[in-house]
Amino acid sequence: MATAPTTYSPSQGLERRQQQQRRRIFKEEDWVRSDGRGFNQCRPAFLRTGAGNAASGSAYAEFGTTKVIVSVFGPRESKKAMMYSDIGRLNCNVSFTTFSTPTRGQGLDNKEYSSMLHKALEGAIILESFPKTTVDVFALVLESGGSDLPVIITCASLALADAGIMMYDLVSSVSVSCFGKNLVIDPTAEEEAFQDGSFMVTYMPSRKEVTQLTLTGEWSTAKINEAMELCLDACLKLADVLRSCLKEAANAG
């Protein structure tokens, strides 16, 4: 009696071999980044305000293939106005479009990113300036190309400024990936997939204050210091880009 034919997919084995090859490449000390950047070089950044018409403020950010749009609504009367508060409320929501990642159908609200965005922005906003009201921040990732959260945070800061929300300072955010002895700034999605660890800083440059720091993987003290130095320097330069964007928008208006 003949047995049923067994199906198999040669492409799976090919994909596995390609992944193993990429992993070996990232372990080499002198590997070359796929987009040709140096290890300490960030992707080209394009930022602009006024990306959404109905919102109080909005911004669009494009870092390499990572594309994000953020809309800010408010301050508006809080739904929880019955509970009097001397300070305003900040709500943050991060979601991904269904076509933002290579795997279709993964466009969902990201609760972890929403919480981290809230934490990054909360320390920068003067909440006392809008008591009994709420500011809502909605971030939508149009295309996920790596370093998504730092781009979301930076874009949200620009959108808040565009909305006229009082802030202590603009917020910029940058991440670093660790590959053995190498540190790589502003990693792509492919690089993040094979990293040994990640380090992200959210910073208010004028006040020299860190509003958020996240760390994954195993890091030596020396590596942490090196990553911190790289991130803070990049955050300072990114903040200059944000200010230039706001000045251009003000002059154009």
UniProtKB/TrEMBL annotation:
GO cellular component terms, A-Z: cytoplasmic exosome (RNase complex); nuclear exosome (RNase complex); nucleolus
Protein localization: Cytoplasm; Nucleus
Pfam families assigned to the protein according to its UniProt record, in alphabetical order: RNase_PH (PF01138), RNase_PH_C (PF03725)
InterPro entries documented for this protein: ExoRNase_PH_dom1 (IPR001247), ExoRNase_PH_dom2 (IPR015847), ExoRNase_PH_dom2_sf (IPR036345), PNPase/RNase_PH_dom_sf (IPR027408), Ribosomal_Su5_D2-typ_SF (IPR020568), RNase_PH (IPR050080)
GO terms under biological process: nuclear mRNA surveillance; poly(A)-dependent snoRNA 3'-end processing; rRNA catabolic process; rRNA processing; seed germination; U4 snRNA 3'-end processing
Entry keyword set: Cytoplasm, Exosome, Nucleus, RNA-binding, rRNA processing
Chief location: cytoplasm
Annotated family: Belongs to the RNase PH family.
Protein name as catalogued: Exosome complex component RRP41-like
Taxonomic source organism: Dioscorea cayennensis subsp. rotundata
Gene: LOC120281764
